[in-house]
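This week, look over our next protein:
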Amino acid sequence: MDKPYTTQEKQEAYEQAAEWFMLIQEQSLNTQQQAEFEAWLVAKPLHQEVWQNVAMFEEKFNRMPKQVIAKTVQELKPKKKHIGKLSLAFISLLTAVYALQGIRQQDYFPELLSFDPVDIYKTKIGEQQQVALHDGSQIWLNSQTKIRVKYNDQQRKIELANGEIYIETHKDRLQRPFSVHTQHGDLVALGTKFNVDYTLDKTELSVQEGAVRIEVRNSKQQQIISAQHAAMFDTDNIYPQTFHAGDLLWRQHLLVVHSMPLPQFIKELSKYDKTRIVLDPSIHDVLVSGSYSTRDINKTLGVIAHTYQLNISETTDQIRISADVSK
């Protein structure tokens, strides 16, 4: 079991993330700064988790009244030369939000200046979870997923901080809209069953039943995606995708692929296991098809090796896959 991070470690990570965020906003990173940022990001899983939260916090900070920011700035004294007063205000606000979060025992940013109740759900690598919401709606969380559920008198809102969820909405007696928010925009459910897969660079939507309206964050683009259709979007644009029913079978612990390059297949499989898998460059062109279990990674890799005539060697810290030269 992973050792939990201390409160001090978490707060330091939030402050470091805030500094990086504001530096990136103020100027383009040079080569050295980019390398330092990437090194910080991969140094701890906590850093990646915090960075995703900071990204989702951005639009809330941008909506802060200027008088609130100004008041905060007046009470601050610069601590570092490479960040300005606005950066310090952001760090201060971020730290304050984190402190409120700690008091409320929530591992997520509460909505700024709001004390409406929220529920936090998250899964570790290899875990899945089904959650029944207050209105009867159901949410399934895939491996390494984190959501924040906010229900009040006006809305039913899910903030997806990381990972993948499948949702079955339920008719609401208060007729509140149901939406899923990522840093790329909002998904408004129109009575439906749908899947949302979020990463830092894109959000992918697959609609099984009903329809979902995509509202892109940085533009006025909107599009309704109907049943048996899919789309991908970022902060600016919406891109049509092919709907694959097999993509929704992760709830049955299955990874279904068709002619998927082996490196991409291993990347998808690695969502469910911490084992480091190394591929020999000579087999990167292998295309994988079929249905594979995500519960037993070693068994799945054995099937892949047998099917595509590959060799597997295992050490204490990794699995290496290469061409089987004996065949």
Remarks:
- The chain has three domains: 7-103, 118-246, 253-323.
- Helices lie at 7-26, 31-43, 45-62, 66-74, 85-103, 262-269, 297-307.
